[in-house]
Amino acid sequence: MKKIILTLLAGVIAYSATSKYERHNIFLGTGVGIDHQVRFDDYAFAWNIFGGYEFKPMRQIGTMAYVESLISIKPYELTTRVITQFSINIDASLEILQISQSARMGPYLGVGFGYANLSTTLEDKTGQNKALFFTNAGLQMNVDESNVVRLGVKIPFDLGKVHTDALQVMASYAYKF
């Protein structure tokens, strides 16, 4: 009898841990950070806006698919170096640390593809254009069901040369509808 009760209790715990959470959201967000250009050995102020869709089958596991636009500006000699990029990304998150009743935190990891333009002014039409592959990694904290704060690193790889010459560190906030 004791074994049956323990087996039923273990089954109820296992079922509740794996039961479907099924929360899916559209989200919008923005962030600020630093864009480090290795080949120029300098740092530029960067900001981004992004929006997409979150699929979350369980409270601890989620996938975010989103589009992102990032701009970084750096004064350079007598001009201004402007980098604009547009990317499509998908990130998987695992929120393993429960901070409070509604707040959870954990790592995320993802990939993306995009396009970047490096020019000397906003009006420059002859800048360098690149196709990029991104790796995304960082920490994500869901403050509650609607508010997400992220601290992450994005590493763009130039597809033409298959190497990286930049590192972007961003702190961002997203609101889930």
Query: H/E element string?
Result: HEEEEEEEEEE
Structural class: mainly beta
**Which regions are unreliable across 5 or more consecutive residues at pLDDT < 50?**
none
- Report the sheet with the most strands, covering strand number, pairing sense and barrel closure: 8 strands, antiparallel, barrel
Number of H- or I-type helical stretches? 1
Beta-strand proportion: over 45%
How does this model look, in words?
By secondary structure, the chain is mainly beta. Strands 1-2-3-4-6-7-8-10 form an 8-stranded antiparallel beta barrel. It is elongated and about 80 Å long. The termini are far apart. The model has no long low-confidence stretch (mean pLDDT 86).
Give the helices and strands, then pairings:
Elements: H1 2-18, E1 23-37, E2 42-56, E3 61-76, E4 79-94, E5 97-98, E6 104-119, E7 128-142, E8 147-158, E9 163-164, E10 166-176
Give descriptors for this structure.
single chain; 177 residues; mainly beta; eight-stranded antiparallel beta barrel; 10% helix; 68% strand
How would you summarize this macromolecular structure in one to three sentences?
This protein has 177 residues and is mainly β.
